[in-house]
């Protein structure tokens, strides 16, 4: 983990910024659903000052690409693009669902995570992830937006115990609690920029970066079908 990466995320109610430099992480985070535009840039300034760095010394800007609030995702990408344009840096988009999986491992050491964000309209953004030996995460299901009642019908129990993260579990508990999974609780409700920065290290090392003008959100509203990925039976 050697790249110097600044990460920003406003895709959910949580607003967060993190700067990863080697093994050091400088982070700020606050649940502030209506104040993302007011808080995000001051957070950026704070972590840069704490680390004694400028934007021009960084290798990349990472951002929570979604899924999440449409407005929140757009705010995060817009801020990240402005920073990247100004410093002529590449960008790395990271799934908010996968970031919560990393957050669950960071906090609890769990290696199999089921992420569900409240997508409104009686749906959740859904994805499951398993941690690889190198610290990266492999998707078990294709990320999607889906009605909890449909998840109940489609998800089948396996030998793993899945940690539940995200707001979707509580928002639709009537259905979500009946999904046929070996599961356990966690205290992870939102993605954090420090976990986005961590995952961005893998993407950066693999050359999975884009120019600022090419960065794009992932809303998932055009992907409504749940699907288990090949080889993940």
TrEMBL record:
InterPro entries: ATPase_NBD, Gcp-like_dom, T6A_TsaB. Keywords: Acyltransferase, Transferase. GO terms for molecular function: tRNA N(6)-L-threonylcarbamoyladenine synthase activity. Residues 30-227 form the Gcp-like domain. It comes from the Bacteria. Belongs to the KAE1 / TsaD family. TsaB subfamily. This is tRNA threonylcarbamoyladenosine biosynthesis protein TsaB. It comes from Vibrio gallaecicus. The lineage of its organism: Bacteria, Pseudomonadati, Pseudomonadota, Gammaproteobacteria, Vibrionales. The gene is tsaB.
């Amino acid at each position: 983990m050697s790249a110097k990466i600044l990460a920003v995320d406003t895709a959910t109610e949580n607003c967060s910024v993190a700067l990863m430099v080697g093994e050091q992480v400088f982070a700020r985070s606050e649940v502030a659903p209506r104040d993302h535009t007011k808080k995000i840039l001051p957070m950026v300034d704070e972590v840069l000052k704490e680390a004694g760095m400028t934007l021009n010394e960084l290798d990349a800007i990472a951002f929570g690409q979604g899924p999440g609030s449409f407005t929140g995702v757009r705010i995060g990408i817009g801020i990240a693009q402005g920073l990247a344009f100004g410093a002529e840096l590449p960008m790395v988009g990271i799934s908010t669902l996968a970031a919560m999986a990393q957050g669950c491992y960071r906090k609890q050491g769990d290696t199999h995570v089921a992420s569900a964000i409240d997508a409104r309209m009686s749906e959740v953004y859904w994805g499951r992830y398993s941690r690889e030996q190198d610290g990266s995460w492999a998707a078990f299901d294709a990320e999607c937006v889906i009605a909890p009642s449909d998840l109940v019908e489609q998800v089948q129990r396996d030998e793993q115990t899945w940690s539940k993260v995200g707001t979707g579990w509580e928002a639709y508990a009537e259905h979500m609690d009946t999904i046929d999974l070996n599961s356990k609780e966690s205290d992870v409700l939102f993605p954090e920029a420090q976990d986005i920065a961590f995952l961005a290290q893998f993407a950066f090392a693999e050359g999975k970066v884009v120019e600022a003008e090419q960065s794009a959100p992932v809303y998932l509203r055009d992907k409504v079908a749940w699907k288990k990925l090949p080889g993940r039976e």
